[in-house]
Design brief:
The protein is of the alpha/beta class and 260 residues long. It has helices at residues 20-24, 72-81, 159-164, 168-172, 188-201, 219-231; strands spanning 3-10, 30-33, 36-39, 60-67, 110-111, 134-135, 153-158, 177-181, 206-212, 237-242, 248-253. The relative contact order is 0.12.
Length: 260
């Protein structure tokens, strides 16, 4: 029987579909439907609001209204059907930052030359040459004045996608600049700030977001959209979605990008 209790409310106008709340909900009560977070069922929501803090737009709130009672057994069955289990005691602790020891020599910007033809492969040689054209490659370490960004086609690559793509160097890197970022574990607002600087000062020709199929990874889209608005940059932006086994699931031009 419905009773008055605390339960999640999702403002569909504010929701950007980043999927962070889905990852933060240990009960599996939320799903992405048509690009927006939705409550799967009232019985799966405990009303404690663990999903609130991670929402970048403030779309999630707790409201008090008539709702079906929270059903822990139903949650266990739902998680089992999704191939999950509740083991909060084994959840990893948030990563702690390494102490800083001043400037890192590895941050220095430099252009690189592809390695050329691959040597004869043996157990100690990689079978294909590197096509990486510059260093550094982490988004937060790139400089707006880096020469390799001038007129570049930039690939904004989710960290996990880099590991999943079997042909990253052959298919994605030749002739392109690259920036790696994680929308879940990194500081998303810091990425917005940095990317806005790069877009305003780098003179890039295009930007393509390459991310995994998992919901949190699409947070890169939000980061790029915010950076585009802040910088006033005018360039085409594309999106490519990668499966866990490295298959390209789809690609499109994003509706808010500006065609060159």
């Amino acid at each position: 029987m419905p009773r008055t209790r605390d339960i999640i409310h999702i403002d569909q106008e504010l929701c950007n579909g980043c999927g962070q709340c889905i990852l933060d909900c240990a009960e599996g009560a939320l799903q992405l439907v048509d690009g927006k977070a939705k409550l799967v069922g009232e019985i799966y929501c405990d009303g404690l609001g663990a999903c609130l803090d991670g929402c970048p737009t403030g779309a999630l709130t707790i409201e008090k209204r008539d709702a079906e009672a929270f059903d822990e057994q139903a949650v266990e069955e739902l998680l089992a059907s999704q191939g999950q289990a509740q083991h909060p005691e084994s959840a990893p602790s948030p990563a702690q930052p390494f102490p800083s020891a001043g400037g890192c020599p590895g941050h220095a910007a430099m252009s690189l030359s592809p390695s050329g033809p691959a040597p004869a492969a043996d157990e100690d040689d990689w079978p294909t040459p590197s096509q990486l054209g510059h260093w550094p490659i982490k988004l937060q370490l790139l400089s707006p004045q880096a020469p390799f960004l001038k007129g570049a086609d930039l690939i904004l690559l989710a960290d996990c996608a880099a590991a999943a793509l079997p042909d990253l160097h052959k298919r994605f890197l030749p002739g392109r600049a690259i920036a790696l970022a994680c929308p879940k574990l990194d500081d998303a607002q810091a990425h917005v700030d940095k990317l806005a600087e790069l877009l305003a000062g780098g003179g890039m020709r295009s930007l393509t977001i390459v991310h995994m199929e998992v919901p949190c990874c699409s947070g890169l889209n939000w980061i790029v959209e915010q950076a585009m608005q802040r910088s006033g940059a005018k360039l085409p932006v594309g999106e490519m979605v990668i499966s866990r086994n490295g298959t390209v699931l789809g690609k499109r031009n994003l509706p808010w990008s500006l065609a060159a």
